Amino acid sequence: MLAYAVRRAAAALAALLGATVVIFLLLRVIPGDPATAVLLTMLDPGAGSAELSRADIEALRAELGLTGPLPLQYLEWLGEILRGNLGASLRSRQPIMGELAARIPGTLTLAATSLVVMLAIALPCGLVSALYAGRSADHLSRALSLLGESLPNFFLGVLLVYLFALWLRWLPSMGWQGPESVVLPALTLGAGIAATTARLLRASLLDTLSQPFMLMAEAKGLSRSRLLFRHALRPALIPVLTASSLVLGGLLGGAVVVETVFAWPGVGRYMIEAIAGRDYPVIQGFTLFMAALFIVLNFVVDILYRVLDPRVRVEVRRHA
Fold first, then answer.
1. How does pLDDT run across 29-75, given as a tens digit for each residue?
2. Comparing 114 with 254, which gets the higher pLDDT?
3. With 60 as the cut, is the pLDDT of residue 317 above it?
4. Interval 256-284 mean pLDDT
5. Residues 6 or more apart whose Cβ sits within 8 Å of residue 242
6. What's the burial of 259, exposed, middle or buried (CB within 10 Å: 0-12/13-18/19+)?
7. How far is CA 177 from the centre of its chain?
8. pLDDT at 315
C-alpha cells in the first residue's frame, strides 16, 4: 500500500509541475504585450497605447516577471510559489494568497452545500432508476437527469431567482444575507452535477446486478430491492467514487459561474473580476490553485479506490 501511495504521489507531483509550466507559458504566449494590455485597462475608455510611457510599461513588465530569459523567469516564479508567494494583485495591490484565503471559505461553503444537494438528488434518482429499470419511474428519473444535464448553470440560476426570489419572495437573490442565501446557489450548482451522478449510478448498478454472482443470488429467491441495497450498492459505488474527483472539481469549477450569477463572495467571482480587469497575477494564482486542487482530489480518489476495490489490490500485488 505504501509503495502504491508513493508512486501515485510522485505522479501527482509530476502533474503539478507540468501544470506550473503550462500556466507560466499562458501569460507569455497571449497575443500582444501583457503589460500594455493591463495599463490600457487603467486609462479612460478609448485611450490608445500612444498615451503610455515606455517607463511605465517596462516597470510593469518587471513587476509581472516578464524580463530576462524565459527559463530564468520560470525558475524565479516557481521559487516564489514554493515559498507560498503568488504575488500581488495589480488592482488591489494586496497579496493574492491573502485574498484567495479570504474568499475560499465562501466557495467551500457553497461547494459543501451543493454536494449535499447533489447527493440528496442523485442517490434516490439513481436507485429508483435501477430498481425500476424500464418502467415509468425509470423513464421519469432519466428524463429529469437529462434535463438537469442540459440546462446551463447560469440559466438555471436565473430561473430559480425569478421563481423563489422575485415571484415567491422566499429567498434572497444575491450576496450573503444569512444562511438562507446559500440555498439558491447550492440548488443551481448541485442540480446539474446530480444529474450526471444519477445517470452514472444507475448504469453502474445495472451492470453490477447483471453480474453472475448477482444473478445467482436472485435465483435463490432474494428480492431485487434486497439485492440492490444489501449486495449491489457497494461495488456499484466504485465507478462513482472514481468520478468523484471530477464531481468535486466540477463543484468548484462551476462555482465560477454560479458565484457571478448570485454575486456570491467566493474565489470564482474573484477570478471573473480579475479576468475583466486583466489582473494576470490573480489569474495565474487562481489557475494554479484549481490545478493543484484537481490533482490532490485525483490522488485521494486513487488511494481510496485502491483501499475499497479488492480487484485493484490483487492487480497491484500481481504486477509488483
1. 777 677 777 776 666 555 555 566 778 777 877 777 777 788 888 88
2. 114
3. no
4. 83
5. 301, 305
6. buried
7. 25
8. 47
Q: What domain range is 190 assigned to? A: 105-319
Is this model's pTM higher than 0.85 or not?
A: no
Strand-pairing partners, residue 95, are: 88
- CATH, residue 258: 1.10.3720.10
Question: Quick check: 96 and 87 in contact, CB under 8 A?
Answer: yes
User: Residue 89 pLDDT > 60, yes or no?
Assistant: yes
Identify whether 47 is part of a domain. Answer: no
d(Cα 267, Cα 258) in Å, to the nearest integer?
11
Asked if residue 52 belongs to a domain, the reply is no
Mean pLDDT in residue range 205-219: 72
Tally of domains in the chain: 1
* Cβ atoms of 96 and 86 closer than 8 Å: yes
Long-range contacts (CB closer than 8 Å, 24 or more residues apart) made by 139-147: 141/198, 141/202, 142/199, 142/202, 144/195, 145/195, 145/196, 145/198, 145/199, 146/195, 147/195
- Asked whether the beta carbons of 294 and 235 are under 8 A apart, the reply is no
Which pLDDT belongs to residue 316?
A: 47
